[in-house]
Amino acid sequence: MAQTKEQRILEFVKQNATEGDPQSVLDHIDKYCSQKEWAMNVGDEKGLILDNVLKEANPTTALEMGTYCGYSAIRIARLLKPGGRLLTMEMEPKNAAVAKEMIKFAGVQDKVFIMVYELWKE
């Protein structure tokens, strides 16, 4: 079975980034998305805006709607103060699984709780 784009991003990160280093993981996601395949992550430019907002607000708790591969969750978690928590929600179980691995590889899993949810059922 062929890998999804999200799984390919995860594999690239695991092969090239430094485990336990959130910035290295973010840099390698950005590299993959700029050089290989576009993905709907925040990216480095918008990521800097997010970083500045987080530094200014200095929250203890944050909520993210839409995890995708875990890029912004890692960006947020790395800036949370000690004891800070991020609740991130994802509709697609396959993306949540990739995000969980990505977040663990980045070393911020203790700050992040991923919740998989359905908006509606038919």
Automatic annotation (TrEMBL):
<dbReference type="GO" id="GO:0032259">
    <property type="term" value="P:methylation"/>
</dbReference>
<dbReference type="GO" id="GO:0016206">
    <property type="term" value="F:catechol O-methyltransferase activity"/>
</dbReference>
<dbReference type="GO" id="GO:0032502">
    <property type="term" value="P:developmental process"/>
</dbReference>
<keyword id="KW-0949">S-adenosyl-L-methionine</keyword>
<dbReference type="GO" id="GO:0042417">
    <property type="term" value="P:dopamine metabolic process"/>
</dbReference>
<dbReference type="InterPro" id="IPR002935">
    <property type="entry name" value="SAM_O-MeTrfase"/>
</dbReference>
<dbReference type="InterPro" id="IPR029063">
    <property type="entry name" value="SAM-dependent_MTases_sf"/>
</dbReference>
<keyword id="KW-0808">Transferase</keyword>
<comment type="similarity">
    <text>Belongs to the class I-like SAM-binding methyltransferase superfamily. Cation-dependent O-methyltransferase family.</text>
</comment>
<keyword id="KW-0531">Neurotransmitter degradation</keyword>
<dbReference type="GO" id="GO:0030425">
    <property type="term" value="C:dendrite"/>
</dbReference>
<dbReference type="GO" id="GO:0016020">
    <property type="term" value="C:membrane"/>
</dbReference>
<keyword id="KW-0128">Catecholamine metabolism</keyword>
<dbReference type="GO" id="GO:0042424">
    <property type="term" value="P:catecholamine catabolic process"/>
</dbReference>
<keyword id="KW-0489">Methyltransferase</keyword>
<dbReference type="Pfam" id="PF01596">
    <property type="entry name" value="Methyltransf_3"/>
</dbReference>
<protein>
    <recommendedName>
        <fullName>catechol O-methyltransferase</fullName>
        <ecNumber>2.1.1.6</ecNumber>
    </recommendedName>
</protein>
<dbReference type="GO" id="GO:0030424">
    <property type="term" value="C:axon"/>
</dbReference>
